[in-house]
Amino acid sequence: MAKVTVTAFVEEEIKAGLKALADHERRSMSQMMAVLIEKAVDKAVEDGLIEKSSIPDAPQIS
User: Fold this and answer.
1) Are 60 and 52 in contact (CB under 8 A)?
2) CA–centroid distance for 18 within its chain
3) How far apart are the C-alpha atoms of 58 and 44, rounded to whole Å?
4) pLDDT digit string, tens, across residues 34-55
5) Is 35 among the domain residues?
6) Number of structural domains, the chain?
7) Strands in the chain per DSSP E
8) Which domain holds residue 47?
9) Residue 33, φ and ψ in degrees, nearest 5
10) Within 10 A of 2 (CB to CB), how many other CB atoms are there?
């Protein structure tokens, strides 16, 4: 699956928290954002908020 660029505008405090979390997990901020977004999408699927079939090329959750 190809990677794409996503841009987000957040408050300074959120950026600082993201940086602290990324540092703690030894990740870049970009990697940390990708992990957090992936977890949020997976949770939305599990909670029935969105359907996995609506996400192109997504692996199916069993």
Assistant:
1) yes
2) 12
3) 14
4) 999 999 999 999 999 998 888 8
5) yes
6) 1
7) none
8) 17-52
9) -60, -40
10) 4
